[in-house]
Amino acid sequence: MSDPAAVATDGRIRRGDETRRAVLRRAVDLASVEGLDGVTIGRLATELSISKSGLFAHFGSKEELQLATIRAARAIFSHAVVVPAMEKPAGIVRLRALLDGWLAYSSGRAFPGGCFFSRATHEYAARPGTVQEALRDVDQEWLALVSATIDEARELGEVRADVDARQLAYELDAYLDSANMRSLLNGDLAVYDNARAAVDARLAAVAS
Predict the structure, then answer these.
(1) Residue 62's CB: how many other CB atoms inside 10 A?
(2) What structural domains and CATH numbers belong to the chain?
(3) 64-106 residue pLDDT tens
(4) Structure pTM?
C-alpha cells in the first residue's frame, strides 16, 4: 500500500517543479526582450498568478532568479543548437551544424527577443558581479566549442594548418551576433541570409 504522506510529498515536489519550469520559461522570454533587470519576483508573481512568498521559496532573491534564468536559457540553447550539432560527424560538417543551428535558433525566435545571451550580455557586459560572470562563462563556453570544432576540422585536413581556430571562431560568431541584432533592429530576416553568405565565404577561404 502506498504511503499517503509519501504520495502527498511527491505531489508537492512535482507541482513545485512544474511551477519552477513555468516561471523560468516566462523569465527567459521576458529577459530576451526587456533584459534581466526586467525579471523580478514581483512581476513574475503577478503575471503567473503565483504568490511572491511562493516564488521567494523557489529562488530567494532577484539575483538567484536571474542566475536560474541564465541556466534555463543555456539549457534551451543547448537543446536547440549544441545537441543536434554534436550528433553530426566531427569537422566541417559539425561546425556548419553549429553555425546553421545558431542562425535557426535566432531567426526562429526560440526566444521572442532573439538570442537571449546577446540581449543579456549587452546589458551586463560593464556590470561586474555574479550575473556578469555567469554570462561570461556561457560566452566562453560557446566560443571554446566553436574553436575546438575548427581544430577538429583542421586535424581532419578540412581546414588549412595555418588557421588560428580562436580567431576564426571569433569572426564567425561576429557574423551571427550581427544578424541577430540587425534582424531585431530592422525587422528584416534577410540579414540571416547575409550571415550565411559571410560564413560560407569565410569557410571557403580557410578550406584546405
Answers:
(1) 15
(2) 4-206 (1.10.357.10)
(3) 999 999 999 999 999 999 999 999 999 999 999 999 999 999 9
(4) 0.88
